[in-house]
Inverse folding.
């Protein structure tokens, strides 16, 4: 039978009712305090593959499923720290564009610019999920965050448009005078949360 360790404690369950690890994790969630989130799930010390979640539990006979939880507050704190680092990486990608424009061809600059808007889009989607975990923490800054994100999205759209029109001087100006300061402002706002 599969052994389950929940925060280093044995978790008992009825193997006749639970068919696979996916159902087992859902059962664990039902037994968690409302302030707790699952932060890690591993099987025999390894990350799980998609197939591990769906196969019958009997396949995992005598294996150990380790489930670790964290508080919503700790989860959000960790993600906010990561957010600041991600913003710095994205800002650096935008910051790489001006030297490229001066030293290389427009094609090279276009290639350089392809990653930054995509990374920014992925980051903003990821960041929005963090605020959904702990609404109260973001409540006082919600309108400021939304406004700042909207300005960032508008600047990014303008950068993409200027890139497609090969308006490199205006693009440089948009990055230096709008995008980079907006990213700094977002980072500073996140630090206050």
């Amino acid at each position: 039978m599969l052994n389950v360790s929940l925060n280093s404690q044995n978790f008992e369950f009825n193997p006749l009712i639970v068919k696979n690890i996916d159902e087992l994790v859902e059962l664990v969630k039902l037994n968690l305090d409302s302030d707790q989130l699952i932060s890690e799930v591993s099987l025999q010390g390894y990350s799980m593959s998609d197939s591990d979640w769906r196969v019958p539990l009997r396949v995992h006979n005598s294996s150990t499923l380790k489930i670790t939880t964290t508080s919503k507050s700790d989860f959000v704190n960790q993600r906010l720290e990561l957010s600041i680092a991600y913003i710095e990486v994205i800002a650096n990608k935008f910051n790489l564009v001006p030297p490229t424009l001066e030293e290389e061809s427009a094609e090279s600059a276009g290639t350089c610019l392809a990653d930054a808007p995509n990374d920014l889009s992925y980051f903003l989607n990821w960041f929005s999920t963090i605020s959904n975990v702990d609404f109260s923490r973001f409540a006082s800054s919600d309108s400021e965050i939304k406004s700042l994100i909207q300005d960032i999205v508008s600047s990014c759209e303008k950068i993409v448009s200027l890139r497609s029109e090969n308006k490199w001087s205006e693009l440089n100006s948009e990055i230096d005078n709008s995008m980079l300061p907006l990213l700094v402002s977002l980072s500073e706002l996140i630090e206050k949360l």
Summary: Residues 20 and 73 are 30 Å apart (CA to CA). Strands lie at 3-6, 9-10, 36-43, 46-47, 64-71.
